[in-house]
Amino acid sequence: MGAVFGIKMVKIKTIKKIVIFLFILLFSFIILFFLYWNIGNGYVNHELKKYGKQIIEKIDNYKNINGKTPDSFIDLGLAPNEMWGGIGTEYKGIDFWYDRISDNDYDLYFGLSLGEALYYHSSTKEWE
User: Which pLDDT does position 102 carry in this prediction?
Assistant: First the structure.
């Protein structure tokens, strides 16, 4: 009877070790996933902002020459994308959208994921 009880104790200890190992493995995976997601998105956002800054320079140059913001991407020599009513354009493989607010102000934005976008507001010169 003592040997059977000893075998059961060994099995219980082994099961506990396996459960602890699986918990640590799962927890590590979750941490690595969040780190990858945040670092990866930071890099992607940086690249997208780089292309956005190129469009912002085009808009600001247009404004300096013409005294007002462009009516659309067409004024910048960029072909409009018919998606979303023609206010979008594809620039270096990325879809950007432009909203002219006034002669002086505009918003430029691009989608990050479903329902999320990164906006540049010319009035504050900030991305949000």
Answer: 93
